[in-house]
């Protein structure tokens, strides 16, 4: 927690840095000013010795200033502070493109408005076949298993199971076409003007649909306000104990930010040949929720590395902006 005393220290340091950099006072006068603050910490950057002081201060000022945005190799990206509304990064953020399994965020959002978490869904052969025939990621479901909606949502969000999303869409459309219509209705009601869904999983057949980095970031913000969806998306692992109704299942989250990036909340990974590697991510840092999307990355692991750097960078910008001057 910042105290008013710390604000005074930072303020004194910054004012002195700015004044020296412009040359409006002498180094000796600067040393007198910094005696208002204790030694050590930020205040010590203004302590000077001799005529070289202005250059030293300019270097210190640079360390306090906003650093350049990290490189983002993906085709599109968007990063904003959902708490303050500040947009930190926008790269081709309004360009329509396929978003692969980020589609499943909307699938989960719609299911949570149509179903009760304790509802039981029976997996059918067509659900399993849908995932296997399309070479899609799956939750390892078998025909005849009966699982709760809650567990199937974990199967959708963690291993990105196309079998689980197909089963839920089949029941809560009912049927794929009606469920997709509900997805698109929700997109319009949420103001996602550049988004059109063609299926519940983002697979290329019959069509992948499209969205934008900006729309997906907006959807992530909305989705994370739902406590159930936030808990599911941020879980690193989910185990389903064997019962008479179903086998045992253990699903690991495909989002490598969880447990590594401070404050990470999820949200969803995705990949198809057309969409490239995609990532919708978020983290809570110092009272701010940072939300970002990367689309069209060519390297699977690099999307997580980029997201980590972006979160760290945006967090630093937020910290600087929060200093009371």
TrEMBL record:
Documented EC number(s): 3.4.16.4
Enzyme class: hydrolase
UniProt keyword Transport present: no
Residue ranges of domain Peptidase S11 D-alanyl-D-alanine carboxypeptidase A N-terminal in the record: 72-298
One Pfam family it belongs to: Peptidase_S11
Classification via InterPro entries: Beta-lactam/transpept-like (IPR012338), Peptidase_S11 (IPR018044), Peptidase_S11_N (IPR001967)
Gene3D superfamilies reported in the protein's UniProt record: DD-peptidase/beta-lactamase superfamily
UniProt keyword terms in alphabetical order: Carboxypeptidase, Cell shape, Cell wall biogenesis/degradation, Hydrolase, Peptidoglycan synthesis, Protease, Signal
Entry keyword annotation includes Hydrolase: yes
GO molecular function, a single term: serine-type D-Ala-D-Ala carboxypeptidase activity
UniProt name for this protein: D-alanyl-D-alanine carboxypeptidase (Penicillin-binding protein 5/6)
């Amino acid at each position: 927690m910042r105290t008013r005393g710390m604000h005074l220290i930072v303020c004194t340091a910054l004012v002195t840095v700015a004044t020296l950099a412009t040359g409006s006072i002498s180094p000796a006068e600067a040393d007198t000013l910094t005696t208002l603050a204790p030694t050590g910490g930020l205040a010590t950057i203004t302590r000077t010795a001799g005529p070289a002081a202005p250059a030293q201060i300019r270097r210190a000022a640079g360390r306090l200033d906003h650093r350049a945005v990290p490189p983002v190799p993906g085709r599109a990206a968007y990063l904003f502070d959902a708490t303050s509304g500040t947009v930190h990064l926008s790269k081709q953020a309004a360009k329509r493109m396929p978003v692969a399994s980020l589609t499943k965020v909307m699938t989960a959002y719609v299911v949570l408005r149509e179903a009760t978490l304790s509802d039981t869904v029976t997996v059918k052969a067509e659900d399993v076949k849908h995932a296997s025939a399309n070479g899609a990621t799956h939750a390892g479901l078998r025909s005849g298993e009966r699982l709760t909606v809650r567990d199937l949502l974990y199967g959708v969000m963690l291993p990105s199971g196309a079998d689980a999303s197909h089963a839920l869409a089949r029941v809560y459309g009912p049927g794929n076409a009606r469920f997709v219509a509900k997805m698109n209705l929700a997109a319009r009601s949420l103001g996602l003007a550049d988004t059109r869904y063609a299926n519940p999983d983002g697979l290329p057949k019959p069509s992948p649909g499209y969205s934008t980095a900006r729309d997906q970031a907006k959807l992530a913000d909305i989705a994370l306000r739902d406590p159930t969806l936030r808990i599911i998306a941020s879980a690193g692992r989910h185990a389903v104990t064997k019962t008479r109704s179903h086998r045992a299942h253990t699903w690991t989250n495909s989002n490598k930010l969880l447990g590594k990036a401070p404050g990470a909340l999820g949200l969803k990974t995705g990949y198809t040949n057309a969409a490239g590697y995609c990532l919708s991510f978020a983290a809570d840092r110092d009272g701010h929720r940072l939300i970002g999307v990367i689309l069209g990355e060519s390297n699977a692991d690099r999307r997580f590395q980029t997201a980590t750097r972006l979160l760290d960078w945006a967090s630093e910008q937020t910290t600087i902006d929060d200093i009371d001057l």
